[in-house]
Fold L-ribulose-5-phosphate 4-epimerase.
Amino acid sequence: MATLADYGPEVRAEVKQVREVVAALHEQLIKWNLVVWTAGNVSQRLHTADLMVIKPSGLRYEYLTPSSMVVCDLDGNVVDGAESPSSDTASHAYIYRHMPDVYGVVHTHSTYATAWAATGQNIPCGLTMMGDEFGGPVPVGPFRLIGSEAIGEGVVETLKQYPKSPAVLMQNHGPFTIGKDAEAAVKAAAMTEEVAHTMWAARQLGDIIPIPQEDIERLNDRYQNIYGQH
């Protein structure tokens, strides 16, 4: 089995940098109330090798450091790290193998998004910010058990049907989000919880007014291609 010492200096330098990024981004999950205790995880794929950096399993967030992050290959095998990797490692690896443009994956159990997942419902697209970020509803994926590639398979299958969405709510489990890097996936996780909460509140007041698909397309195009700094 390969170890990090088998890789060249360019790869080892990127591993060091990505460990720092991934460790810091776990603090954002706490900041935005997306996780409790040891639940949830962030990973980022390397550009210089078929490796990823992911949170260790069962470690409390206040104890996470760059050195505690675990380096795995894209089959989920540990390449470097003193801790066991997240129980979702095989699913993260599956997503990276089957979605080559994805370089960041996040899983949370954030309250309102997970409530939609528990009822097996898409979050309906009733907000312009949903058109912006998700290009439509936030979809629900199938029920799959933890500990194998099965959840990753469900994420990939679902997002093929919703190619503009960076998020999927795995039924009875919780949200998984993807991005061009781990920070983008964390942002998508925070946005998923925000719209889940707002759409839940809207349901208490009455029927949600759907946004026409052609307007969703315009919103998404503007946000993805014009909004912000380029």
